[in-house]
Structures are given as C-alpha cells and as structure tokens.
C-alpha cells in the first residue's frame, strides 16, 4: 500500500513570539500561548524551535511540539519543567504574558498528519502534545472518525490534556495506578490491537524508551515500518 504523501510547509525565518497566555495545568509544566509574528501555518504534529537569548548574548534553543491546530490564531506549546533544564525552567518559571522570545518553524514534515487519512496516535507523557494538535485539527474539520488514540502516563494527574484526550476516546494506559478496570501496567499490543484500521499511519511520540517500545509493538501487529512515524523527546540542542 502506498503511504500518504504529506507536503509540509517550509519553516519560516526566525521571528518573534509574544507570550499571550501562561497556564500551569499540571505541576511542573507550563502551557504557553504565543502570538507569532508572520506565522506560517503548520501541519498537526510539527514543532517549533524556541531560542532564548541572555543579556550577555548567550543563546540556548530547544524544540517544542505544537499543541494547537492550524486554525488556532495562537501557537500553543506545553513544556515539562526539568529541574536541571536550561530552557524548560526558564519557560516554566520566568516567562510572563507580554514577554517575547525568538521562534522558528514549523519544522518536522516527517511527523505531520495530513488531516485526511486514517491515523493511529500513540503518545507517552509529554509526547501526547503533537497528538493533541492532531485531535484538535480532526475536531475542527469534523474528521474525528480518522483518528484512534492511545496514551500513557504514570498517573492520570500527570497526563497532559487528559480531559481532551479522554473526550476524544483515547485508550488511557497508566503505569502507576489503575484506570477503570485496567490495572496499572505498561502499554501492550492488547491495548493497540483494537485500534488498528486499514490504511492507518501510526504516529508515536514520547521518550526514547517509550517510542522504541511502542514502535516495536506496532510493527509486531503488522504495521509496515515505513508507516510508523516516530518522534522522540530526547535532549535537543537544535
Ligand atoms: C522534536 C522535539 C519536540 C519536543 N517537544 C517537546 C514538548 O512539546 N514539550 C516538552 O516538554 N519537551 C519537548 N521536547 C524536549 C525539549 O526539546 C527539551 O529537550 C526539554 O525541554 C529539555 O530542555 P532543557 O533545556 O530544559 O534541558 P537541558 O538543559 O537540555 O537538559 C537538562 C538535563 O535533562 C536531560 N534532558 C533533556 N531533555 C530531556 C527530555 N526531553 N527528557 C528527559 N531528559 C531530558 C539532559 O540530558 C540533561 O541531563 C521536544 C524535543 C524534540 C526533539
């Protein structure tokens, strides 16, 4: 079967993002709503690079997935605060509405959903962020029928966008507590098998370990390796 061809937009130049809203929906996280000058419409799944510049000219840049759909006039990022993290601590602790910093995007055409073909979304922890953009886009275009979703976190309280994902019918797998009649456990093929449909592309996002495990499960279920798109949230310097 031929895979859908996704034509992703070329990233725009470095530009200014003005912080329009700051929320802390879960402990140790921050959700930023950004007004991006000259924003290029993204495809759900793509990410931006954030560049912070200190007064002495030192810069640090990191990648962050977009949680908002293309139809949202603002760009939404969801950042987990790492205690020893250079950029995530600044975004979580320091940034306030009205602040500005540089961004560049959208980036990552290999992990973009076209919005028109069936997809199985599998996310772990903050790896759900780009999948939320897909769920929101499907809702905005009335194509929720195209998506099947499975997400994993330690506890429900630590699952980003838990209400939205559950409303979208996501299978929720919790590793540290039971969820309904489902005991605490890791994601298994039994969770994913009922979500399979003909012609799906799978989008897997999370830590390196989660992404590897979920990708292996999907290939074990019969997905062609080329139809499993993987995004890893490891350390990123570019
Ligand atoms: C394509 C892409 C999309 C991403 N999207 C998101 C997103 O939507 N939300 C989000 O919170 N993060 C996301 N990340 C991760 C993000 O880019 C940073 O790596 C993360 O915020 C840590 O940056 P920092 O400067 O705070 O930590 P650093 O100063 O870079 O690192 C501090 C310490 O944490 C370790 N570390 C760095 N990154 C991670 C990580 N992701 N997980 C575990 N340990 C880590 C480092 O090895 C180091 O020991 C994404 C990464 C990529 C590549």
From TrEMBL:
The protein's required cofactors: FAD
GO molecular function annotations of the record: 2 iron, 2 sulfur cluster binding; oxidoreductase activity
Alphabetic keyword roster: 2Fe-2S, Iron, Iron-sulfur, Metal-binding
Ranges where the FAD-binding FR-type domain occurs: 12-113
Glycosyltransferase in keyword set: no
Family annotation (Gene3D superfamilies): Nucleotide-binding domain of ferredoxin-NADP reductase (FNR) module, Translation factors
PANTHER family referenced in this protein's UniProt entry, alphabetically: NADH OXIDOREDUCTASE HCR, PROTEIN RFBI
Protein name as catalogued: Ferredoxin-NADP reductase
